[in-house]
Design brief:
Elements (H helix, E strand, L loop, with lengths): L4 H8 L11 E5 L2 E5 H13 L10 E4 L9 H17 L2 E3 L6 H7 L8 E4 L13 E4 L2 H10 L1 E5 L3 E7 L8 H12 L8 E5 L1 H4 L3 H8 L9 E3 L4 H11 L16 E6 L6 E3 L7 E3 L10 E4 L7 H11 L9 E4 L4 H10 L1 H8 L2 E2 L20 E4 L13 E4 L2 H10 L38 E9 L6 H4 L10 H4 L13 H4 L5 E4 L11 H9 L3 E4 L4 H9 L4 E3 L13 E5 L4 E4 L5 E3 L5 H8 L6
Parallel strand pairs: 2-3, 2-5, 3-4, 5-6, 8-9, 8-11, 9-10, 14-15, 14-17, 15-16, 17-18, 19-20, 20-21, 21-22
Antiparallel strand pairs: 1-7, 12-13, 19-23, 23-24, 24-25
């Protein structure tokens, strides 16, 4: 049977010659990493369950969220991981190294066709070299560190073929923002996406990284780009070994095959709030900015910074505007130093920080304040993600040009005189824990319902990244939904035994386990949604927190705080107020097995 690229990689790491979409398999994990915020919980899971690391040569810590050590709780977590690493002989890429997902490529740990997991939700960046990367929660990572394997549901595949010639003013970031404009945040939810076409073949490694890094924002499991000869040569040099090129079979079967004319792509930016709210940059051109950020796992590569240096050379950042630049790895930082780019950045008035994730992870430079308008090369601009202000997303060229102009613009339209400020922003200010449910795992759930009729509720809305250092579940409940407009008082109103019903793609975004555990802390019994973000679904299942999906429940005639009953084995939901019943999707086997034993690690 012919296999797609994802099917071939997963089959090669399983006991099967052929895998099919929807099938759940155990796969061998080649690279197993944990970051500084998730790493402490990974270690706690291992210690609390008397588990040992399967293979330290494949196991790593990467401290990229807070590489400045500027937060005491991050520093404590990092030191806790260092102590564990010393005892077990685990290699650490510490605060001076850079972004873990880039390091596994540049250090030759990951190669085309390999499998990588990390507590970083952008581990699917590995699609840039034709490898399988997946962000996972701390229980998942702990289980893989202990066993060397992880269960995975084989995704369906979509093939996108690009036709036409790429315009000169279209950068890699523009390509992915055009894709977000077309597909949104959940059209490709749960799919593995493969990219083909002459212009795709020409993409450099740095450009491929930009595109693959935003698979998460499209809801996709991964965006896979078959490796070119240039990428193969790079990976062979970095890994020090000859590699076989991984390719999909010629007659592989895809769930969808689509063609896109790249010649029609436009320079794009995403408006504040949602990466998929991407528009032609001309629609917001002239918007005054307070700050600009260049970096993140999406756009902190050497080619990105070379483009920035070309625009900033012999220019100054607009008065009152702050430009923050963060290379993705220390090697790239030093390469910029040797090329003279750091001097160009500093002469222009930019702040250059050490390598890392920066503002995207709330742990370094790049955050903004209330009322602040930022244009950023990051991958996410969810409300509160990069601070209290508003964040537009764009390419490094657009961000650099805007920083010089003082307003959003393109490199070909930088004014002689920059914009000046007329006013400043305004300040604004903004929880009690409820006990966790008992260890019994009932299959019939009854409770009062909260109807939250929204799609794409992301993990920053559920449990904001400013609370990520909290590892005690008892403390988490008070922060549930405190970044979701209209529901910021949810934790105060919720009662033990409540049930949440919401829309599509619930839990989009980060790999944080806290976005599941906060509901357990409040005593919420279950969440029903039309669909869940892929990582969130795994985290809930592994924590034995019952989540279910439905297709249509309008016949129930539900009203806010109605009492309902759910049979998770048979997939039945009943409105106890009127006796109406409908079918929903029941637990699948792995979910029920983990649920009954009260968690993946039990």
């Amino acid at each position: 049977m012919a296999l797609t690229l994802i099917e071939k990689i997963l089959a090669n790491h399983s006991t099967k010659d052929v895998v099919i979409p929807g099938e759940i398999i155990d796969i061998e994990i080649d690279v197993r990493a944990a970051r500084d915020f998730g790493g402490a919980n990974v270690v706690k899971n291992l210690l609390n369950n008397d588990l040992e690391v399967d293979d330290v040569s494949k196991t790593f810590f990467t401290f990229d969220c807070n590489p400045t050590g500027s937060d005491q709780k991050y520093a404590a977590n990092q030191q806790f991981c260092r102590q564990y690493a010393r005892e077990k002989g685990i290699k650490i890429y510490d605060v001076n190294a850079g972004i873990g997902t880039h390091l596994v490529i540049d250090e030759g740990m990951a190669v085309p066709g390999s499998t990588v997991i990390s507590t970083d939700s952008h581990a699917n960046i590995l699609g840039a070299i034709g490898a399988f990367g997946q962000g996972m929660g701390d229980q998942d990572i702990a289980a893989a560190w202990a066993s060397g394997k992880s269960w995975f549901k084989v995704p369906k595949s979509v093939k996108l073929t690009f036709t036409g010639t790429r315009p000169e003013n279209i950068y890699a970031k523009d390509i992915v923002l055009n894709l977000l404009n077309k597909f949104g945040a959940n059209t490709l939810l749960g799919y593995a996406v493969e990219l083909y076409g002459d212009e795709i073949d020409k993409l450099s490694l740095d450009e491929r990284i930009t595109i693959s890094s935003m698979a998460t924002e499209m809801g996709a499991i991964i965006v896979l780009i078959p490796p070119s000869d240039e990428v193969m040569e790079y990976c062979e040099t970095r890994s020090g070994r000859k590699l076989a090129k991984i390719e999909a079979d010629k007659n592989a079967v895809y769930d969808q095959e689509l063609e896109l004319d790249i010649s029609k792509f436009k320079p794009m930016v995403s408006r504040p709030g949602h990466p998929d709210d991407s528009i032609d940059i001309t629609e917001v051109k002239g918007t005054k900015i307070d700050s600009a950020f260049i970096g993140s796992c999406t756009n902190g590569r050497f080619e990105d910074l070379k483009t920035v240096a070309k625009i900033l050379k012999d220019r100054k950042i607009a008065p009152g505007v702050i430009l923050k630049i963060v290379p993705s790895t220390d090697t790239i930082w030093n390469k910029c130093l040797n090329a003279g780019y750091i001097k160009i950045f500093k002469d222009a008035g930019a702040l250059v920080s050490n390598a890392g994730c920066a503002g995207c992870a709330a742990g370094q430079v790049g955050q903004n304040g209330p009322g602040e308008i930022t244009i950023s090369t990051g991958n996410r601009n969810f409300a509160g993600k990069q601070g209290k202000g508003k964040v537009y997303l764009g390419s490094p060229a657009e961000v650099a040009a805007s920083a010089v102009a003082g307003f959003i613009t393109t490199p070909d339209d930088i004014p002689e005189k920059p914009a000046e400020f007329e006013s400043t922003g305004e300040l604004k200010k903004e929880g009690t824990s409820k006990k966790e449910k008992s260890s019994e795992q009932p299959t019939i759930l009854e409770g009062k319902v909260w109807l939250i009729e929204e799609d794409n509720i992301d993990t920053d809305m559920i449990f904001h990244n400013r609370y990520l250092t909290i590892t005690d579940i008892a403390e988490m409940g008070q922060y549930t939904f405190d970044n979701l407009e209209g529901w910021k008082d949810f934790a105060k109103k919720a009662e033990a035994g409540d049930i949440v019903i919401t829309g599509k793609n619930f839990g989009a975004g980060s790999s944080r386990q806290q976005a599941v555990d906060c509901f357990k802390s409040l005593g919420v019994q279950t969440i029903l949604a039309e669909s869940f973000g892929a990582i969130y679904e795994r985290n809930a299942i592994n924590a034995a927190f019952p989540i279910l999906t439905y297709t249509n429940i309008t016949e129930l005639g539900l009203k806010q705080r109605d009492r309902i009953k759910i049979d998770i084995e048979d997939g039945i939901i009943e409105n106890l107020e009127n006796g109406k019943k409908v079918e929903i999707n029941k637990f699948f086997d792995v979910q029920m097995e983990i649920y009954k034993r009260n968690g993946l690690l039990k």
